Amino acid sequence: MPLTSTLPVPLASAPAFAPRRATRREAIAQAAGIDTRRWCALAIGSLVVAGLLSLAVVIGRLPVLSRIIDDPLFFKRCLVVHVDLALVVWFYAFLGGLLAMAAPAQPSRVRTAAYLLAVGGVLAMLAGALVRGAQPVLANYVPVIAHPLFSAGLAAFFVGALLHFVHALAAPAPETRGALPPDATFGLKAAAVLIVIAAATWVSAQAGLPAGLDVATRAEFLAWGPGHVLQAANACAMLAVWLWLIERTTGKPVLRASAARLIFGTLVLPQAIMPLLTVRGTMDSLYHTGATQLMRWAIFPAIVTVLAIGIRHLIRNRKNQPSRSRAARTALTGFIASAGLAVFGLILGACIRGSTTLVPAHYHASLGAVTVAFMTAAYFLCEAIGNNSGTGAQRERLWQAANWQLVLFGVGQTVFVLGFAIGGAYGLGRKTYAAEQHVRSAGELTGLVVMGLGGLVAVAGGLWFLFLILREMRRGWRPSSTLSSATS
Question: 470 and 376 in contact (C-beta within 8 Å)?
């Protein structure tokens, strides 16, 4: 059922042939559809370009083709932009699209300017990879290129996204609910608040940096605190999507408003002290250790709580799902794949004892959980803002393909993470490649082989997702389409 309404026009108020003016509710729904399409197009486009850049990294290792480009840092710069597009632009642009759909707001020039600023930032980041001689810095969380063009682009994207989030938070409550259930909408707004806290942490970290630092050290410490807060934002957005998917599976909302405020509040409030951890300077152990401890102890309680409540909700309403529709089955598959990776990530994080491949195993599981949740949400988002083109049989085939795509990606990512974990259990060091790895045991070799096989399967699942979602965007998105309820 569309979220717009057609109000009757009294006969005496206008001639019968006069065109009906759009109501305020219709204008809000139209603006929400436009905003959602914009940000999601940027998110999906960033994944496409990230995939192309990964090919450039592969070419850089081929003996013949690598000689075409004589700048040895070019391929490392491509790697930096690849990571930023796949883990920064994809996550926060898609979150922007979800928030626009969940909380429709009045048309605004600020929202348009925010989007254009974000797009311009991504283009500048891509241009930064082409600057000859610019130094890539493979810092944790947000790797960078030491050049003003790339720095300006990264800043422009974050400022654009931040403007969009702040505008969504400040907008008055809509007259009618958005396409997402209220508990999921509250979770998305909580994620937006966390991104605001991350921005404040970056400002405080910038003010606390001493002069004279080298580029790599400066980038590492500057991104440390904000990066940890962004991980909390990722988890918060993932939980919001879980609530949406469970509702799509059972047909009933999971949390009451008071419960949603309590759970997401426990995730947001501890992170609010992060900007204060630089009080003794960004290089002080309070900042470094405090961020680590906040991520270790302040995120998992909300994940475990929502997971337990969600499973209980599914069991209680099992008669309503998943056989009633393929769409409901896809929602359940996406939730299971995401939740499984999230739990795997929590277990691996508790096992970390040193700088081994258990560390990338942990964060690839955690980020994979967010990614598969967003992939699932993307299918339902296309349904909500598209015109549902195609026959019923075509729609059924889409949901069937989406279901198997999520299974493929989830299994591949799990095996990939398992390979990292096996290698780490045998002491395989992280951030080492080729001859630097010093593989000394059969266990380390087994881990690398399992990791490679899982990675290939996950890549195949990712490419399948892009094919399906780009086809839906081409077939179903029309400029005239408005936001439709995803719960009808």
Answer: no
Place of tokens 């475990």: 304
Q: In sequence order, which residues have a C-beta less than 8 Å from that of residue 31 and are 6 or more positions away?
A: 104, 105, 106, 107, 108, 111
CB 7 within 8 Å of CB 23 = yes
- Report d(CA 358, CA 350) in Å as an integer: 10
* pLDDT band, very low/low/confident/very high, at 33 (cuts 50, 70, 90): confident
Q: Which long-range contacts (CB under 8 A, 24 or more apart) does 67-74 make?
A: 71/132, 71/133, 73/133, 73/134, 73/135, 73/136, 74/129, 74/132
Rg, Å, the chain Cα set: 23
Question: In Å, how far are 232, 253, 317, 384 from 295, measured between CA atoms?
Answer: 7, 29, 33, 34
Q: What sign for the dihedral angle of Cα 180, 184, 113, 53?
A: negative
Q: Which residues pair with 135 in a beta bridge?
A: 146
CA angle 464, 468, 470 (to 5 degrees): 115
Q: Which amino acid is at 91?
A: F
Which of helix, strand or coil describes residue 428?
Answer: coil
pLDDT 10s digits, 367-406:
999 999 999 999 999 888 775 555 678 888 999 999 999 9
Quote the CA–CA distance of 157 and 159 in Å, as a whole number.
Answer: 6
What is the per-residue pLDDT across 416-431, written as a single tens digit (0 to 9) for each?
999 999 988 888 776 5
Q: How many CB atoms lie within 10 A of CB 268?
A: 20
pLDDT in tens, 194-229: 999 999 999 999 999 999 999 999 999 999 999 999
Residue reference for tokens 């960078």: 144
Regarding pTM above 0.85, the answer is yes
* Cα torsion 115, 382, 85, 178: sign: positive
Q: Quick: pLDDT tens for 70-119.
A: 677 888 898 899 999 999 999 999 999 999 988 777 778 899 999 999 99
Host H or E run for residue 374: helix 358-385
Distance between alpha carbon 239 and the CA centroid of its chain, in Å? Answer: 12
Average pLDDT rounded to a whole number, residues 21-33? 69
Give me 370's structure tokens: 């967010």
Q: How confident is the model at residue 10 (pLDDT cuts 50, 70, 90)?
A: very low
Mean pLDDT, all residues of the chain: 86
